[in-house]
Amino acid sequence: MALQISAALSEAAHRLLSRTGAILLGAFLVLMLGFQAMFNTMVAVVLTDMGYEEVRTALPLVLDLPLAVAGAGITLGILLSAYLSIVAFRTFIAGARDSFPTGAFTRNIPLALVNLAVGGFVYSLLVFVGSLLLLIPGIFAYVVFIFMAPYIVEEDRNFVSALKASYRLTEGERLALFGLILIVVAGAGLVGGVIGFVGGLALSPASSQLLNVVIQVPVSLYVTAVMAVAFQQLRDDEGASPSSPSGVDAPSTTA
């Protein structure tokens, strides 16, 4: 079975609108509001030190914290966001609606975090360099390596193996996958743009910023679910076992 775009979109919504999806949505929402508070606090402290004290009253969620604490909070928020993304991918790939799959919260988390960080940098670099070469190579790199993260978090691969596996998995499906990405990106942009525009007209700048955070969370989580379902479709179609698909390096078996 080739990539089924409509099925991926509908199944992603089905998995998001579930008990596990609701828990992930709530966790991400709390995290992002906390992250926004730390970020706004850092901005307010810096600008206040520069003499722009009025900025503090214009920003929402500004806390009475020193700059170092706000910076530490931002760093912690980035780590927690990566951790929850691992849990989300594992949950959506497994199609777990009522309870989280075994090991979703604990299996090889440090290994996954390191490989996501390094692999994400390499992936971004490939896309950036490709984009400098008349854009098309950048789009190609973006599509063919898009399943690097699912391979890392689901099969405990290192980022090199995950890049190779993603390249192989997308063979023959790259135009369809590009179409799916266009639909998701356009839809997310439309929802965010319309709500942001309406919020900007009807709400204060502070309230509008909070609204953007609240909207960004479900949209981003839905995109994650779509990529997880597409990954599952193509991997199941390939007929490869989770541990050693043909032609790519076997993932780590570290417990």
What does this structure look like?
This protein has a domain at 5-100 and 172-238. Helix content is 75%, strand content 0%. The protein has helices at residues 5-16, 19-49, 54-58, 67-94, 109-132, 136-144, 148-155, 159-169, 174-202, 205-238. The radius of gyration is 20 Å and the shape is globular.
Total count of helical runs of at least 4 residues: 10
Ends distance: 32 Å
Structural class determined from secondary elements: mainly alpha
Largest sheet: none
Question: For the CA atoms, what is the radius of gyration?
Answer: 20 Å
Query: How confident overall, as mean pLDDT?
Result: 88
Can you give the helix content as a percent range?
over 70%
- Topology as H/E string? HHHHHHHHHH
Quaternary arrangement of the chains shown? single chain
Question: What's the number of extended β-strand segments?
Answer: 0
Unreliable stretches: 240-255
Question: What would the principal axes of the Cα set say about the shape?
Answer: globular
Beta-strand portion reads: under 5%
Task: Give a short summary of the structure.
The protein has 255 residues and is mainly alpha-helical.
